[in-house]
Each structure stands twice: as structure tokens, then as C-alpha cells.
Amino acid sequence: MVLFGPAGNSDSFYAEGYENTLSAAEWIKQQGLDIYEYSFGRGYRMSLDTAKIIGDEFKKNNIEISVHAPYFINFATQDKDLLAKTFNYIETGIKFLRAFGCSRLIFHPGSMGDQTREEAFILAKNRIGEFVNMLDSQKLLDGIYLCPETMGKSKQIGTYQEILEICALNKHLLPTFDFGHINALTQGALKSKKDYIKIFTKSLETIGTQRTQNCHIHFSKIQYSNKGEVKHLTFDDNIYGPDFLPLCEALIQLDLSPHIICESSGTMAEDAKKMKEIYLKTLGK
Ligand SMILES: [Zn+2]
User: How far apart are the CA of 50 and the centre of ligand 1, in A?
Assistant: First the structure.
């Protein structure tokens, strides 16, 4: 079963008078959606006690949460302070997963800075591998997936090939395929079912069936320039893409059951619903 849900709260959620994430669980269930991504992009501004209360509310409504770690994470950094913080952001994220009672922590691997792409990638990959193996050996990752994300800007680490190479290092690493990012980085290359099949085939070859089937997906239309991602759009866009239908057909052909989080600007729940409708309709054909 493919699961669908929004990243954060839609504009319509607030327009209907709801004020905080505690009410989001019931609202998402009413929309017929399955999952929800909570973003700590700008830092962990919540107590673990509050996370426990929110987690209980989501569990009551049978909506699974995933957590997005802070955007400041950079495993390729040359700055010792930022590197220490990077490790800390992941460790704190794991504490929030435990408090919410959920299993997926999504993170951006980092950016090149002044290094060559090759140097930055090798550095980030080695650090992630050592760190995750260390956490794993301490039994801190039981029931948990750390999910590095494919990125949309040319200076960021995270082509899908890089993400898969990183995920091959430990079974607790699960890819987050952000297809809006991949499309932005490749100047609109995601057009047909075979474009998605190619990515999933690489994933099957690199990390195997189980993690490919259960991978994490971000999907939204994203405006791009020659340097990649500019900004997130809504499903009303018909210039930049990508379109959901070819992905949907690839998921059905390969029998995949990912979690798909919609990151549209302001209409994330509405657009997640549109994807779920397209999926169910295509499945029924
Ligand atoms: Zn992200």
C-alpha cells in the first residue's frame, strides 16, 4: 500500500480555524490521508514532552509521522563546530522519533562549499557511514530509518546515485527520493514512466528490494533555473513539473509501497489527495 500525506499544514487547515499540529492528526484523517511529515527545518523548537503528546494524538488517528531534520546539517563541512552540530541534529532527531513513536528521520546530506564535488561527496559519505555504524552498534537505531534526501541545487550533495551509494553503507539508511528536486537538478528530465523505472532499478541494484519498496518520497512541482531548484509550486503549475502520473505508473509496475509526502506550497494536503486519487484510479484500471 502506498501512503500519502502532507509536509506540514495546508493553508486551508489554518483558514478553517485550526491553530496547531495537535489538531492536524484528526484533520488529515478527515481528508482521507495516511501520513504526515513534521519539519524541524529551522531547528528543534519543541519539547520532547510535547512531541509525545502529538505522537499519541497521531497514533489515535492511525496517521504515521515522519520527521524532517534541520536544514543546517552538513556532513561535508570543513567547520568543526558545524560538524559537531550535524551529529547532534541527527541524535536529537532520533530522540524526537522515539517521542513521536515513529521511524523515519529525513535529512539533507550537505553541500560542497569550496571543495570539488568528488571531495565533498567522499567526505560526507565516509562520515555518514562511520556515524550510522556507530549508532547502530550502540543499538540506537532499532526500528529506525535515517533517510538522506536527493537534493535540487547543483552545489548540494544528493544526486540519486549519491544517495543510493550512501544508503548502501547501512541497512538503517533509507533513500528519500525528492522527485521535484531530481527534476529541477536535471532541468526537467523526469517525463515518462521509464525515467522513474531507471531510478528505481538503480535502487533495486544498489540497496535491494525491501528498502526500495519502502522508500520515502517527496513529491511537488518545483520551479528551477540552470542552477537547479528555485521554489516549490503547487499542482496548478504546468510549466516545470514533474507530473505525478508517470511516477504512479512506475510504482504500480514495480509493486512499490513508498510513503509519499507532498511539499506543495500551501496546498500540500490537497495535492496529496490528488495524488492518492490518481493512484487509486490507475490501480483500479
Ligand atoms: Zn528536505
Answer: 23
How far apart (Å, rounded) are the C-alpha atoms in residues 116 and 208? 30
Q: What is the CATH number of the domain that holds 186?
A: 3.20.20.150
Taking the C-alpha atoms of residue 238 and residue 255, their distance in angstroms, rounded to an integer, is 28
Task: Assess contact for 9 and 264: CB atoms under 8 A.
Answer: no
Domain range for 56 is: 3-284
Q: Confirm if 218 and 179 have CB atoms less than 8 A apart.
A: yes
Helices and strands per DSSP (H, E), number in the chain = 11, 12
Q: Whole-model pTM?
A: 0.96
Q: Is 138 helix (H, G, I), strand (E, B) or coil?
A: coil
Total count of domains within the chain: 1
CA distance 34 to 28: 7
The cell for 125 is 559519505
201-260: per-residue pLDDT in tens?
999 999 999 999 999 999 999 899 998 999 998 988 888 889 999 999 999 999 999 999
Alpha carbons 19 and 78: distance in angstroms, whole number: 40
What spacing in Å lies between the alpha carbon of 178 and ligand 1's midpoint?
8
- Residues 64, 4: Cα–Cα separation, whole Å: 10
Question: Distance from the CA of 107 to the center of ligand 1, in angstroms?
Answer: 6
